[in-house]
Amino acid sequence: xxxxxxxxxxxxxxxxxxxxxxxxxxxxxxxxxxxxxxxxxxxxxxxxxxxxxxxxxxxxxxxxxxxxxxxxxxxxxxxxxxxxxxxxxxxxxxxxxxxxxxxxxxxxxxxxxxxxxxxxxxxxxxxxxxxxxxxxxxxxxxxxxxxxxxxxxxxxxxxxxxxxxxxxxxxxxxxxxxxxxxxxxxxxxxxxxxxxxxxxxxxxxxxxxxxxxxxxxxxxxxxxxxxxxxxxxxxxxxxxxxxxxxxxxxxxxxxxxxxxxxxxxxxxxxxxxxxxxxxxxxxxxxxxxxxxxxxxxxxxxxxxxxxxxxxxxxxxxxxxxxxxxxxxxxxxxxxx
Length: 336
Ligand code: DOR
Ligand code: ZN
What we know:
This protein is α/β, with parallel strands linked by helices. Helix content is about 35%, strand content about 20%. Helix 2 (about 50-60) links the parallel strand 3 (about 35) and strand 4.
């Protein structure tokens, strides 16, 4: 039996830069029609020139003309309406990181003082630029996302016309917010649908499963699975595939990030066929995102089949999720 997915989209992707970009970009670009590209480079993408230059490097590295990189800027409360008007056509969203919360986020926002944020957020609202947020406080690691719920509420209430995307949600508290505020949306990763904290640290430590936000409890995963499997219209797939070199993962001070890009479609197919259906996978992985972001996407048909695939142990010096293991589905053909 063949399974067909049309124009898959990854609404949260880290492609990095330089040599790593050249390794990882083609892995997403061949099988996806587009992806929201994260701006947390060193230094982050904060100017129009940097953005345009990075987009070009991404396109060059992708080697697939039917892949559209949807670019993002790194949020700064100093962005003026004038600046945003000039950059608007080049971006699909602006990504806000709380300062120091994850990889390369040191230049993010400290405190969430509405007076400090309001000019930029009002301008984004007027210009219809979505705000994508890494929603975690500096609290206890298991509670950071749940504690951030009050900040999501404050932003949703004060900026009702601003489209706010709660990135890579991991808790039942975040899922509950979706139905309370019209302007809140969410991305969900593959790894947070698959694992809980037990898989990361319940036995011997698994650094390749360590990410931010950290995987949570079984009931949180159940809540994510529920909205993903029914393809809740405000939820979309965003892998948060976040490559780091092997020596930065298998180390003390292990970097946060799970590298899933090469096997996302195969594993999502398996998960959805076992727990939901192909129609809902199509919505979760493409249609919902097209509606939420209001984007046209390149045509691409990905045909998968039930055939064992042994996950390579490495891509360059990056270890993927389930390295060396056998998974059930393979990509058979991609028609552009
Ligand atoms: O695990 C993560 N890795 N979470 C993030 O928010 C950032 C990402 C990265 O850039 O490595
Ligand atoms: Zn991310």
